[in-house]
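EI: anyone free to look at a 514-residue chain?
SC: sure, send it
EI:
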Amino acid sequence: MSSDDVSDKIEELKLRAIDSEKNANCLVDLFPYLSSPEDEVVEASVNALCEVFVHYVQNYYDSVVPVPPAQCIGAEQVFHGWMHKNYLQLIQELLHLMKTHHNQDIQLRSLYNLMELVKTEATAHQDTHDKFIVPVNLFSQVVTCLLESNSNHLTSKFKRFMKYDDIRLYTLKHTSKMMAARSARDQDYEEFVMRNFELLQQVKMPTEQEEICKFFCGDPTMQGSETIVSKIPPKKDITRLEVHQHKFSDAWLAFLRLSITEAVYKQVLISLDTKVMPHLTDPRMLIDFLTDSYNLGGIHSILALNGLFILINEHNLDYPDFYTKLYTLLKPPVFHVKYLPRFFYLLDIFLTSTHLPLYLIAAFCKKIARLLLTAPPRGILIGMVTVVNLLKRHPNCKVLIHRAHPPLERIPEVDTDPFDADCDDPKMCHALDSCLWELQTLKSHYCPKVTKSITELLEPTNFLSKREEELAPYLELTDKEVFEEMLEMNEKPSNNTPNMDTLFSYIRTKYNTI
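SC: here you go
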């Protein structure tokens, strides 16, 4: 038979099975088509069988879904047992197709049909027994299969269901249990971790109680025509925001205990401060994770900064060495990472307080200025605005500009500078004994935009003003924009850069980055 003929046969069997429960035996003829080598036949049989069982669950719920008695006596109980067995068989067949089938369309169709059965079970139970439920047994099997499937596209497609409050809640609940039970030695562990992360990223948590109003499995607030909210224990009431936050917190804590890859680690740190911490029952539960990440150094420290700032500023986290660690992040590579704007935005916030000691501000100004000598033009523009703003914010640090020995107009030899760029302790680097001669050097930079900007920033009328420069426009600059502007200005590099060969030779030796 051709595929069209088989599809017609499947359609006929489906209609007969739906027409009367006396034709339920048609199910026996429909199941074998699920194993067909032809994808069109498999998809047709999947849809047909699901339509049949949606019909039977809706109209004969107690004869299909509940587990039948151990001993079936009488024709009705025998029919109940037989239908229940076939229903379980369909669920297992769909799970198998969803997990292993080579055709992504059939995998997706199996997922959608399983979720339709979840919804049908729930609504039929509420219609029959006036009680809201989420079919946990069936739904947990779907989520497990979703995380263990050989296809990556299913997780992204599941997003259409995560907008429902009950689905989101029970997904978080089940994934928490799964993650707690997994070991790094398990097969396909990395894929499991990645799919859990993709699933967690799909979660859009409500922020107000009134936002919890969209349910996939019926209406949990109604029992027939009477409300039942007051009868549900608070910890189990899925209409309460606190319950959702609790499960969300459990899921994220379970995920952070997993052995995650470097790429996932970075993505987690990027999203924690905005997408996770506001919805946790207690953000302080991330203290260990964020402090450990911050102590790793490098890009991990940069990405952990914002989360730590929230804990310090809003949750009274005591981190005595925070600024010392922040100072150690100022290394040449920081100007070459894609998170450069994020870092300087946060750095500017951290150094806002006028109660910070003078030596600390001086150390940051001097270290940034020194790094600007080897930074790309975009990084120089961001860094020099940061330094100028720090000097305006902390006027006592202007001694770095006005110091007469040596005068800023005369570029000193690098080795005579009392500032120790290799010292990681801002208190011991002797920044206050130095001057910002690096800014004068940058006036001879090859990039016209850099020379123009530094000249304007150091103009006495601007520099004496208390109004800080806007940092945001510089953070939004791209390397391409700086380069295109340099071409438009059509200026040649200046030849009066003082002793630059010697200077850069020294920087290469000191920092080993060029």
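EI: DSSP finds 24 helices and two strands in the chain.
SC: 👍
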